[in-house]
Amino acid sequence: MKTPKTMKQVQARKFGGPEVLEVVTTNTPAPGPGEVLIRVEAAAVNFSDVMRRRASPYPFPTTLPYVPGSEVAGTVEAVGKGVTAPAVGARVFAVVGADGSGGYAEFALAQAAQAIPIPDGLSADVACGLLVAGSTAVLLLTEAAKLQRGESIFVPAAAGGVGSLLVQLARHLGAGRVIAAASSAPKRDAVKALGADVVLDATNVTAAAVREATGGQGVDVWLEMEGGASLEQGVQALAPFGRAVVYGSASTAPRTLSQAAQDFLWASPSLGQSVIAFNLGLFFGLKPQAAGAAVGRLLEAIGSGAVTLRVGEVFPLARAADAHRALEGRRTMGKLVLRPGGAS
Questions:
Q1: What three-state secondary structure class fits 83?
Q2: What CATH number should be reported for the domain holding residue 212?
Q3: Which of 20, 234, 236, 248 could form a disulfide with 207 if both were Cys (CB 3.0 to 4.6 A apart)?
């Protein structure tokens, strides 16, 4: 199939609500040295896309206009100078968008070295969510939290793309007790089916409730991505030598840590609790080998059937704004996906 001269992509010309996302027609890019051009079959929708769109705190600067989307799956359409692999026609998934030209498009550029072959039997819808959501889940548990067999863990937003993987991976890694939170009864049922021992109502998660779920001992690992008072609750829910790992700020509310919580962390004698920050992009930049190994571990877990990346709603490219509305409104379960070819 001949590469078309033009393509459709979603652009944001200003920051704001979902309505700033618009479909435009532009020239199809050509791959430069070391790059591949991917014909996009599926593009993941991540909460980081929402944060970037509304100009919430984001680790990298964004120059307008830009194309959202940081990961895609599809077929290599063309290769740039010096690229020997992957070959044209290979099915791959990759991180994109470092230059502001992201994955919400019919074609996307990626570094050839970062394009990973899609294993046989894996759909593009699933593959497009492995690098951000998947790597986040694996690295949070193994590198940041250093979850040990038999330890207890609290997982927020457990029905979402990252959360659903965290529940399954925690169980796969031998967690002794998995406590999760989700915002509706259907979501809580779905999370329970993934292997969580206790699923709390996300609208009312407290340190007391989590302690009760651990028989009063406290939780060994508290994962925090809400912002606001969530870290406060997490710190006071920690068992001795427990770790609170911060990896997001979905509410955008500033985190609070009262004097009581600080006293809990630093009281004498110390009980060894800690607060740890995690950022996927910085981790990839500073520890690329560990990040690559995380993807390999995830693929092994998926291949063995121990873990499933659950795809939620699928949207055509023209409904990117609706995908963002669904994600912000917490109306989703599993990974959200855009398909340039349509939703079916």
A1: coil
A2: 3.90.180.10
A3: 236
